[in-house]
Structures are given as C-alpha cells and as structure tokens.
Design goal:
Pfam families: GST_C (PF00043), GST_N (PF02798). The protein has 2 domains: 78 residues, Glutaredoxin (3-Layer(aba) Sandwich), CATH 3.40.30; 149 residues, Glutathione S-transferase Yfyf (Class Pi), Chain A, domain 2 (Up-down Bundle). It contains 10 helices and 4 strands. Strand 3 and strand 4 form a beta hairpin. It is globular. The termini are far apart.
C-alpha cells in the first residue's frame, strides 16, 4: 500500500497538507474522515491515529499524526523544492518560528471566529453572546496584526521571497473566518496582496478545490441531537 492521507477538508491543517501534496505531485490515496460525523473516533481510524485527529498519514507500516510533522515528512521524503522548507539555517528557522507560533495564536482565534460567527448559530442552533463574539474578533484582529508586523513585514511571503509551508499553514487558517463572512482582508491591503501571491503560487484552481468544503459550510443543514451531543465537548473550547 502506498501513501495514504486521512483528511477532512473542513479542517484547516488538512487543507494545508492536501494543497502541499497536490502542488508537489505527491501520489497519495485520499481517505476522507468526516469530523462532523465522528469518523475520527471509529475503530479503524484510531488504529491509524490514536489521537483521533486529522490529518493523519499512513505510509506502508508507518503512521504519523500532526499536520506540521506530516508536511515536513512529505517535504523531506519527496524532496520538494527547497523554498517549501529551506536548507538554509536561518531561512528554515523563520519557517519553524511561524509554525511554532501559530498553534496557540492564529489557529485558535480563526477557529473560534468561524464557529462563533457561523457554526454555533447556523449548524448547532446555539446563540453566541455578542460580547463573546466581539472579544473573539478583537483577538483575531490582534493576531492578524502580529502576522503582518512580526512575520510578513515587507516580504512577499512569511519566510522570505518565495512561498513556504508557513504560508500554506497561514492561509488555510485565515480561510476559516473568511468562510464565516469575516472580511479580514478588506482593511489590510498588505495581507490581501500576500493572499493573492499565495493563491497564485499554489494555483487558483487548486486553492478553490481545497477550500470548496469550508466555503460551503454555511449551507450545512442544522445538526441533529446526536451530533450536537457528540460535538458538545469540542464546542465548549470554541466559546
């Protein structure tokens, strides 16, 4: 059995892995894991990833969890062009710096914004207090400012003149609040120009393909009682 990627494109790190593999023509078998249906808790999937999270990778008898680890494994094994994860010590350190920061900063603020603005009221039928949403959007705005000032600066991409895995991880995060109707690029021309460069480097068709699921999430039918109960512990993290 060749390379298998277990993904749900509703998930932002899954989209980063998907785009990277497709862009670099890495042959893989897509194993879709529907998070909203709880398929990440199935016995079959737990054999692949006991953490019960996507993305996950299976390469023969070797399994791997965590999106950053998967991206770097693919970059090394398939010898992706150097700009994705540079050999230069300091250039690579810049990519690593962003990947280390985003887990507890941009990831959570983007996820909370999407759930509070779209998934709670539309999918779960749950009211979000206006002050809670306002605080979340303020935190998102703070993270976006840090993204511009600390990482992007006056460069074309987050870690230098060419696209890297840092840009993939960042743009897939930002599309979460965009899918919920947050126009986060409107008042940020520098960030908007960066988004256009990332889309062009990836390819617009691939970018749209990877984000088709999340951009249609607003049209999901309301969750039934069983789904609401299953998602309750996760949902509490996003309030």
């Amino acid at each position: 059995m060749g390379l298998e990627l277990y993904l749900d494109l509703l998930s932002q790190p899954c989209r980063a892995v998907y785009i990277f593999a497709k862009k670099n023509r890495i042959p893989f078998e897509l194993r879709t894991v529907d998070l909203l249906k709880g398929q990440n808790h199935s016995d079959d999937f737990v054999q692949v990833n006991p953490l019960r999270k996507v993305p996950a990778l299976k390469d023969g008898d070797f399994t791997l969890a965590e999106s950053v680890a998967i991206l770097l494994y693919l970059a090394r094994k398939y010898e992706a062009p150097d700009h994705w994860y540079p050999q230069d010590l300091q250039a690579r350190a810049r990519v690593d710096e962003y990947l280390s920061w985003q887990h507890t900063a941009l990831r959570m603020s983007c996820t909370r914004a999407m759930w509070q603005k779209m998934m709670f009221p539309g999918f779960l039928g749950q009211r979000v207090p206006p002050e809670t949403l306002a605080n979340t959007l303020a935190e998102l705005d703070r993270c976006l400012q840090l993204l511009e000032d600390k990482f992007l600066k006056d460069q074309d991409f987050l870690a230098g003149p060419r696209i890297s895995v840092a840009d993939l991880v960042a743009i897939t995060e930002l599309m979460h609040p965009v899918s919920a109707g947050c126009d986060i690029f409107k008042s940020r021309p520098k960030l908007a120009a960066w988004r256009q460069r990332v889309e062009a480097a990836v390819g617009e068709d691939l970018f749209r393909e990877a984000h088709a699921v999340i951009m249609k999430a607003k049209d999901l039918p309301p969750a039934d009682t069983a789904v609401k109960e299953r998602l309750k512990p996760l949902a509490q993290l996003f309030l």
